[in-house]
Input
Amino acid sequence: MDFGPTGLVGRDRELGELAMFLDKAASDGATVLLTGEPGVGKTALLDATAELALAKGARVVRGSGVEYETDISFAGLHQLVAALSYELGRLPRAMREALEVALGLGAGPAPSRITVLNAALSLFEEAAKEQPLLLVVDDLHVVDHASRSAVGFVARRLGGRRIGLIGAQRAESDEPFRATGLTEVEVRPLSDTDALRLLSRRFAHLPPRVLSTVAREAQGNPLALLEFAGSTSVSGDRNGNGVGWASGPGRDVRALYGARVERLPPRTRDLLLLAVLEGSGDIGVLEVAGGPGGLEGLAPAERDHLVMVEENGRTVRFRHPLVRSAVVDGSTGEQRRGAHRRLADALADQPERRGDHLARATTVPDEAVAAVIESAARSSLRRGDADGAVVRMRRAAELSPDRADRRRRMSQAAYIAVWITGHLEISHEIMREVQGDPAARSLSAAAAAGYLVLVTEGDADTAHALLMEAIEQAPAPSGPPHGELETALFTLTIVSEFSGRQEHWKPLVDVLARFPEASPAAATSLARIHHDLGSVTDGMLRRLDEEIARLRGQTDADLVVRTALAASYFDRLPGCREAVSRVIRDGGAVGASMPALVFAALDDLYAGRLQASADAAAELIALCEETGYPLFAQGGHYVAAMAAAQRGDLDACHEHCGNLRDWSGPRRLRRLENHAHQALARAALGAADFETAYRHATAICAPGTLPPFNHEAVLSAPDLVEAAVGSGRHTEARRHADAIRDAGVGRLSSRLALCAATITAMTSAPEDMAERFEEALALPGIEQWPFEAGRAHLAYGERLRRQGLNRDARTQLTAARRLFEELGAHPWEDRAAAELRATGMTRTARSKAGEALTPQELEVARLAATGLSSPQIASRLFLSPRTVSSHLYRVFPKLGITSRAGLRDALDALPPEPPAARP
Output
C-alpha cells in the first residue's frame, strides 16, 4: 500500500498502528505521538496518516511548529483555528471571543488560559460533528509553549469525541512535548535491507555499489537516503555540492535542501522566505506581502516538492521542516528584514503580529517602531499573555532612542516578570541592566526594584526609600494616578501594608492627599482602605460590589488580584473566588497566583473550610519556596497557623508562627508579626488560656485603640475582648468594644457586624446581655461565618450559665458545640462541651469504690488531666484557685490516685453513664 512518493518502505509496523489509531479516533477519540531523529520519516508518516484519514471520510486540519515563532504565544494554535473559521463562528459568543482575543484576532478582556483551552476543545468538537476530525501537528518541539499546552490539554480530553490528534517531535528535543497518557510511537531508522529496497525502487539507475555506499552513509535515515542518492552520479560522486559524506545525515540533508532552494528563481525564494517568516502559511497574507501576481512564483517550489498548497487554496505548507531551515539559511539579513517589513504592512490589522515583525525588521533605535511594539506588549498583557508581554516590552526598550523611554520600558518588563509571570531571574537580569544606566531613576524602575527587594528579601526600608524618592519627583497628574505612577503607588501601598510602621505609612498618607477618590482596586483606594477601614463610604462599597460582579468576564491577573485585595478587607472574597481560581490555575501568571492563593486560603478559612484553607496554604508555601518568593510564603504560614489554632493542632500552629516571627522579626515587618500574634491568641483562647491570649492580642494593639494601617487590630478584636473578659480585665474589654463600635466597621460586612455585636454583648451589663446577644445572632448573613457564629453562641451560653439560667444556656451551648464539631474546631467544641457539663448535662462518673464525682469535680479533673494549672482552671471555670485545689483534694481519693500524674488513666477507666435529666 503506497501513501506517498516513497511508498514508505519498511513502515508496516508504524502504518498498522496508525491505521488502528484512525479507526479508534473516528469512533471514540484517540491520540498518538511520533518521535524520532530528524529525517527519520515522521513527516512522511504524518502525511500518510492524513491521506488515509481523508480516504476514510475524515476532515484533516494541520499545523506545525515554527522555530521563528516560539516566543509568540498561541502561534501554533492559530494555525489550527485559522482552518476552522466557519466553526469558530458557530461557537458560543464567550468561547469565540476568548479564542479571538487569545490569538490576537480580536480585542476584549484577557481570557484565562483554561478558558482558551476549553474554547479550543469546543471548537474542535464542533468541527467533528458532521465527520471525524484529525488534527496533525508536526515539529511539536518548536511549537510555542502556550500552543503545546493547548495540544496537551486537548489530547487528554478526546475520549468519547470523534477527534484524533497526531503529533511529531524530535527525540532529542530540548523542549519535549509532555506526552503523559498519549500513545507514543518511536520511528526508528530503516534496517539495511529496507534502506536498499527503498534506494533500489527510487534509484534503479545507480549501481549496487553506489547504493550500498549511500545506505551505509545515510545510517537508515530515509530522508538522507533519498537526498544523498538524488545528488549522486552513477560514478558515486555528489553533484558538486561540496558536502562531506561523514558530517551526519541531518546536516548533509539540510545542505542538499539548501542547494535545491538556491537553484530556484529569486522570486520563488523571496516568496518562500515570506512563507517561513509568516509562520501560519496564510495565502492571504502572502498575497498582500508578496505583491501583485506573487503566488505564481511558488510554482517552481511546488514542482520540486519543496512546498504544497492545501486543497482549500488558503494555506501553503512546507514538505519538510528542514526546507524552512534551508530557506532561512540561504537568505541574507537584509532580505529577512525586508520580508518582515512587508509582513508587518500586511498585518496592519493585527497589532501584536505586526509588532513582532517590525521588531525583527528593525536594527536601529526607532521610537515609532518601539511605540508599536510597546502597544503590542500591552495588548498581550490584556489578553493574558504575560510572557509575550515581557518579550515584546524588552524589544521595545531595545529600540527606544531616548534613554528615559528605554529605561521605562525595561523596568515595566521587569515588573511584569516579577508581579505577573513569576520569573524572578528574568526580572533581576533586566533590573541589573537598568541599574547600570546612569539616567535618572524612573517610576517604573523604582516600582520594579522596590517590588523585587520586598518579595525576595523582605526589605521594606529599601523599597520604601526607592519608591518615595521617585514618586516625590514625579509631576502630579490632574486626575487619578495612572500608568507608571499608579504602579509605583500600588507597590508603595503593598510595602507600607507589610511594614505597618508609621515612618512608612505616614508619608504614603501625605501623598494620598494629592489625589481624588478612584476605583476600589486603584492604589489610592487600597491605601485609604488599609489606613482607616472605618472611613470607607457606602458608595465605595457599592462600587466594589460592581467591580466584583464584573470579574466574571475579566481575568486580567493584575486587576483580579487588586480587586480581590480590596474585597478581602470587607469579606467579599466569595464573589471573587471564580476569578481568583482562574489566576491560580493559569500557568502564565505564576507571580500573580501567589497572592491569589492567599485570597483563596483566606476565603476557605473565613468560611470554616479549615482543611481546604490548610491545603491552599501548603500549596502556597511550596510554590513560594520553588519560585523564590518568601514574602508570600508568610501569608501561607499565617493561614496555616490560624487553621491549626482553630483545629487545636498547637504544635503546627506554633511551628508556623515561629516561621512567621523568625522571618518578619529581623525585617521589622509588623503586619506579619501581628499575624503570628493573632494565631497564637486564637490558639490560647481555644485552650481557655486567657492570660496568654491577652498578651498576644495586646501585642497587636492596646485595648481601646485601632491604630492606622493595622488591619489585624480589627480582625483580632473578638480575641482581645474575650481574653480581657476571661482574665478579669473588664474595663479593658469594654474600652475595646467601644472602640470597635465607634469605628463603625460593623456596617462593612456581615462578619464584622457579627463580631462587633458579639463583643458588645460580651461587655454589656447583665440586664442587657441577653438582648444584645439575641440581636447579634439575629443579624442577616451570619450563616456564612460558622466559626464566628459558634463563638457568639458559646459566649452567650457561658454568660447564661453564670447567671444560673442553665436551661437557656444549654440551648446556646448545644448550638455552639454543633457548629464547632462540624468545623473540626476541637478545642472550641471541648469548651462548649465543658460548659454543657457544668450545667448538669453530663455523664455521672463513679470511682472504683462507687463514690460519685460531682459535675464540677469531674470538670476540674478533666482540665487538670490536660496539664492546666490550678489558676488556669480557675480562670476557665470562673472559680478561685483555692476552690480548684479543694476539688482536686476530694477527687484524688475518689479516683484512688495520689497526684495529677494519674488523672488521665483514672478518668479513662470511668464507666460511661447516660446524660442526666434536664432540670
